[in-house]
Each structure stands twice: as structure tokens, then as C-alpha cells.
Amino acid sequence: MKDIQIVFSNETKIIELDKNEFNIEKSVFNFYDLADLKELTTQTTYLADIIGVIQDPNLIISRFTNKLHQQQSQMKFYIFDGNTYVRVTLWDAFAEQFHETLMEDFEKSFIVIIICARITLWQNEVDVSNIGPTSYYFNSNHHSAVHLRNELKFPQFADIMNVKKLAEPTRTLTVAKINQLGEEDIEVRTATACL
Questions:
Q1: What is the pTM of this model?
Q2: Could you give the C-alpha distances from 45 to 35, 96, 120, 124, 182, in angstroms and in order?
Q3: pLDDT at residue number 149
Q4: By the number of CB atoms within 10 A of the CB, which of 36, 49, 81, 156 ranks highest?
């Protein structure tokens, strides 16, 4: 007989059921806060489950030929959990399937759960990407998704989410141009090249 350990936390809820009833959740996740993902970028052992609101409804797939002359697909977007934005980069068939499912009914697919995601650091920014076991759920009835959906009803949440225009392309600026930036450019993403 195998020993089984059941762990209870302060989030554990006990519900008394009738003799012939039982309730086992369909899906169980171990979500990381998006703000805590950076610590996972230095290791390759653990994958992460994450949840967030897709920021940009106009998601597109880039198709290109890589340096090995192979066709690849890539989809980039940001998700937001109420506190933190994180970039998601999906690749190849997984990106194509994700995009197709999302476009079927975007209004119902606003909240995404990505499970078994690989967390890396790309251009000094946390990046969530897919590998073999990665999967996703749109518009889940999981209690965390329900909580996030309820948060979306508050105007403050939508205001915070819309402050950053992360889908805008990064501009490359000279030091002289940076000195000319005004208050309206506070949320603009820029990159500077030393020439």
C-alpha cells in the first residue's frame, strides 16, 4: 500500500457531503503570482501554472523562417493578474492552436490559465513560453478564474490594465531624443542604442 499525504492550508475548505455524494475538482493548479516568476528563470527543473487576463484582444501570429531555414510560428502577448504584467511567447503548433481557440470566441476567452509553462528571462524581462506538457484553459470555472473575473468588474482593475500599452512596438531613441520626452511618454516602451 502506498502512503498518501494530504496537505491542508488556510485556504482549505471542508464541506460536509451526504453519504452518496462526493466532490472532486476537475482541475487542480499550483499558481505562481506573476510577480514571483523571476525566481524561476534561473532554474530548469520546475514548470509553472499561471493565470491572468489577456491584455490585447488583437493577437496575431508571426510566421517566419528561422536561421536553420525552418518555418516557425510565434505569438506574443501580455497577461495581467491585477498587479503584474508578464510577457507570454508561444511557439509553433501550440501558438497556432492557442490562437485558433482564442479567436473562436474572444469575449469568453479573456482569462487564460497556462499550465506547465517554462519561465525564462529574455531581454531582461520574464517570459512565459510553452514546452511539451504545456496546456491552457480559457474562461475556466476554477475558483481563481472566477475571482479574477469578479475583479474585472471593478473600474480600477480595468483602468490599471489599460494604463500600459504593452502591445505597442518598442521605439529606439537616441540620448538627445530621450531628453526631449515629456509626461505623455511615461508609459511608452523604449530601447536606447549607444552609437
A1: 0.69
A2: 19, 26, 12, 20, 44
A3: 86
A4: 81
Whole-number Å distance between alpha carbons of 186 and 180? 12
- Cβ density class 141-175: b for 16+ within 10 Å, e for less: ebeebeebeebeeeeebeeebeeeebeeeeeebee
Distance (Å, whole) CA 78 – CA 82? 12
In a domain, 83, yes or no: yes
Q: What is the DSSP pairing of strand 62-65 with strand 48-54?
A: unpaired
Q: Is 148 helix (H, G, I), strand (E, B) or coil?
A: helix
Is 17 part of a structural domain of the chain? no
Same domain, 51 and 88: yes
Residue 147 lies in a domain: yes
In order of 2, 124, 153, 156, the CA distances from 82 in angstroms are: 41, 22, 12, 10
Q: How far apart are CA 173 and CA 42, in angstroms?
A: 31
